[in-house]
């Protein structure tokens, strides 16, 4: 069995790379996909549709172009990992978790104990809550190798 894993959320730490490296070290058959993690590129995703004088409309167009990628990748994944950091509010990650929930796509939340309370509804719908990428790797290993 191969797993297609969508990585959502916080872009300021190395959690994505730690997951990829850990799964590769264990030879787990995992394909990772993600939203665009280059903040400037994501903000400019709609710029090809014409210049805007209003930040609202620039953000609106870019959000829609980014949603083409996000909806497609979430719709095709087997499981998602949704990372919430403590420095910034990841509204997009909460939205992705809700989208997963609506689709019936299993997801794992990844965040520190310090933000359990604001994420209680998101965690309640998750299949697991992890505090480290290494715990996520253990979950993926279990799913892929235990009979």
Overview of the molecule:
By secondary structure, the chain is an alpha/beta fold. It has one domain: Rossmann fold. 48% of the residues lie in helices and 16% in strands. The chain has a five-stranded parallel β-sheet with strand order 2-1-3-4-5, sandwiched between helices. The radius of gyration is 16 Å and the shape is globular. The termini are close together. The mean pLDDT is 95.
Provide a concise account of the structure shown.
The protein is of the alpha/beta class and 147 residues long. The chain has a single domain, classed as 3-Layer(aba) Sandwich (Rossmann fold). It contains 6 helices and 5 strands; from the N terminus they run E-H-E-H-H-E-H-E-H-E-H.
Output the keywords.
16% strand, Rossmann fold, 147 residues, alpha/beta, five-stranded parallel β-sheet, 6 helices, globular, single chain
Distance between the termini: 12 Å
What structural class is derived from the secondary structure elements? alpha/beta
Strand order of the largest sheet: 2-1-3-4-5
CATH architecture: 3-Layer(aba) Sandwich
Q: Bin the helical content.
A: 40-55%
Give the count of helical stretches. 6
Report the C-alpha radius of gyration, rounded. 16 Å
Task: Give the topology, please.
Layout: E1 3-9, H1 15-25, E2 30-34, H2 39-43, H3 55-76, E3 79-83, H4 91-103, E4 107-110, H5 120-125, E5 128-130, H6 133-145
Helix pairs in contact: 1-6, 3-4
């Amino acid at each position: 069995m191969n797993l297609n894993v969508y990585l959502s959320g916080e872009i300021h730490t190395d959690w994505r790379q730690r997951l990829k490296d850990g799964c590769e070290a264990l030879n787990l058959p995992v394909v990772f996909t993600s939203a665009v993690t280059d903040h400037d590129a994501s903000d400019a995703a709609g710029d090809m549709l014409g210049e805007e004088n209003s930040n609202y409309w620039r953000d609106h167009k870019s959000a829609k172009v980014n949603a083409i990628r996000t909806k497609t990748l979430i719709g095709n994944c087997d499981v998602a990992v949704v990372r919430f950091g403590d420095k910034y509010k990841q509204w997009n990650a909460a939205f992705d978790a809700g989208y997963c929930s609506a689709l019936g796509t299993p997801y794992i939340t990844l965040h520190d104990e310090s933000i359990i309370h604001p994420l209680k509804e998101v965690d309640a719908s998750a299949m697991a809550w992890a505090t480290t990428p290494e715990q996520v790797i253990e979950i993926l290993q279990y799913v892929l190798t235990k009979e």
